Each structure stands twice: as C-alpha cells, then as structure tokens.
Amino acid sequence: MKHLALTLCLLLGLASSFAQSPYDSEHNHFCHRCGMAVPKTGKEIKVTGVKQAPWYQCCPMCAFKDVLEDGGGKGTITAYGAISKKEIKFTIKDGKIEKMQPTTAIVLVGGSCMKNKIFINRKNGEQFVAKHDWAKNEMLKPAKQLFMKIKKNANPQSTCATCSVDLKGHEKTAFVILTKEKKRMVSCCAHCGLFMMHKLKDKVKRAITTDFVTGELIAAKKAIYVVGSKLLTCCSPPTYSFKKKSDAEAFQKKNGGQIHQLDELLSNIGKVMKHHH
Ligand SMILES: [Zn+2]
Ligand SMILES: [Zn+2]
Ligand SMILES: [Zn+2]
User: Fold this and answer.
1) Taking the CA of residue 92 as centre, how many other CA atoms within 13 Å lie in the half-sphere pointing to its CB?
2) Which among 39, 160, 177, 260 has the fewest CB atoms less than 10 Å away?
3) Which residues pair with 92 in a beta bridge?
4) Residue 216's domain is classified under what CATH number?
5) Considering the domain boundaries, does residue 20 fall inside one?
6) Tens of pLDDT, residues 205-223
C-alpha cells in the first residue's frame, strides 16, 4: 500500500513536471512576446484579429504591448480573471481600447510576467493582494489607464534586428530573442535569429522561432532546421525551422538542404552557413 502511494506520487510528480516543461508544445503555447510557456488550459490569454494571430500571451502586459507593437494597434484580446476565471475581452482599434468587457477590469502590475495578473474588478484584485505579500495595492491599475500608459512607451520594431529587412510578410519565419536585460529582438528568419543568438551567447534568456508549416511559435532549442534549400527566402543560405522532424524531412526531400539541430548549428555557425553558399 505504502509502495503504491509512493509510486503514484512519483508518477503524478513526473507527469506534472512534464506538463510544465517550457519546451513541451504538446501542453504549452509560447507567449508571442517573451516566449514563456503558456499552459494550454483553454483559459489562456489569446489575441485574435491580427494577421499573425491567433497568438497567445503569458500575461496582460505582454498582450497589451504586443497588440500595440506587433499588432499595429489593433486586435482582440481575450483573457480570464485570475480569481473569477470569467472572460475579459478587449477590442483594440487604432491603438485605443474601443470596447472592454467588463469595464471594471483591473491589472496587477507585479514587475514580472509571472506576477502580472488581470481581474474582472478591483474587489478581486484586492482579494488577491491581501493573500500575497509581494503584491501591493498600488500595483493595481485600471486596464484602460494601463493600456494608455503602455501605448506611450510602445516601440514597434518594424525591421529585422540583424539585417534590417522590413519584417512585414515574414510572419511564417520570424525568430524572436529575449535577452536577460529584457530586450526583445525580432529577426526576419532563423538565419538572422541564429546569428543574433550566436552573437549574444549567454545573454539570451529565451529564443523562439516559427514552425514554417503551421506558423506556430516553437522553442528554438527544440526546432529542427533546414539550411541551404533551393526554396529561397530573405537571407542566404535560406534557413527554415520546423516543429516536427517529419515536416523538416518532407521539406528537405522537396527543396533540398541539410537538417540541423540548434546546438550543433550554433557551435558551427560559420561553417554551416558558409558551407551552403
Ligand atoms: Zn509574455
Ligand atoms: Zn534579417
Ligand atoms: Zn531573413
């Protein structure tokens, strides 16, 4: 009996640690802004109504910033109250909140993605604050007010951080790096993203790339890369990333190129990228 309980505990523990693994796209989406894992619960923060969407966000701050910067100031954000689990919906147009339901929505600006929360009203916000020592009442901001404040500091990146090409039209190949200094760098494709990653080395906190088949964001670490295919892209040698090995192989069969993993690519970047010229 004791053994059974122990085994169960172990199994459950294992199962939950797998579910929370940041690179497990079976159970997680990735925040479109910062690359943090967003567990698939059906109550995640979701952005729709923008070209690259639907995309997911880890917290209300990432959602506001992304709609303003990558969404061009438009889109619909659906979130769920941290205590009530009730839906909160924002319709954003021309950089303004056109509609917000409920109008009492309030955000706890906790200082990091993990600590930013949204509530349907102040009462719920205060209830949360009372239970958590790190949360202070003055960090509760009405959603509309906060949105306008973020808008003032929004800094849309319209060109690739590596090669300066216009990012428009690169939705299916985008590569995003978040540095330890909280700088966010968007590249047109994995080619540029990998060079940037190589340059930044241990300054990189998270890196996410895009599955060329589905447009889904995936952890750069887990992606499969095809370098040097006949199918050209913005940069040379063309570098595509895939979530599934089978997709990468099918692509390679059709378009040529070499299959690589991230670590091996980064440690031989000069050679791999030159080799295919
Ligand atoms: Zn985020
Ligand atoms: Zn580029
Ligand atoms: Zn490129």
Assistant:
1) 28
2) 39
3) 75, 97
4) 3.30.450.410
5) no
6) 999 999 999 888 889 999 9
Q: Separation of 205 CA from ligand 2 center, angstroms?
A: 20
Residue 14 lies in a domain: no
Total tally of structural domains belonging to the chain: 2
- Which of 142, 98, 145, 91 is CA-nearest to residue 119? 142
Of 112, 168, 162, the residue nearest 135 (C-alpha) = 112
Residue pLDDT, tens place only, 1-45: 445 554 544 444 444 444 344 456 678 888 888 888 899 999 999
For the chain, report the end-to-end CA distance as a whole number of angstroms: 64
Q: How far is the CA of 185 from the centre of ligand 2 (A)?
A: 11
Q: Are 187 and 147 in the same domain?
A: no
Domain interval for residue 43: 26-153
Cα 56 to averaged position of ligand 3 atoms, centre (Å): 24
Contacts of residue 78, Cβ cutoff 8 Å, sequence gap at least 6: 45, 46, 47, 48, 87, 88, 89
Which ligand approaches the C-alpha of residue 55 most closely? 1
Residues 148 and 228 in one domain: no
What is the reported pTM? 0.74
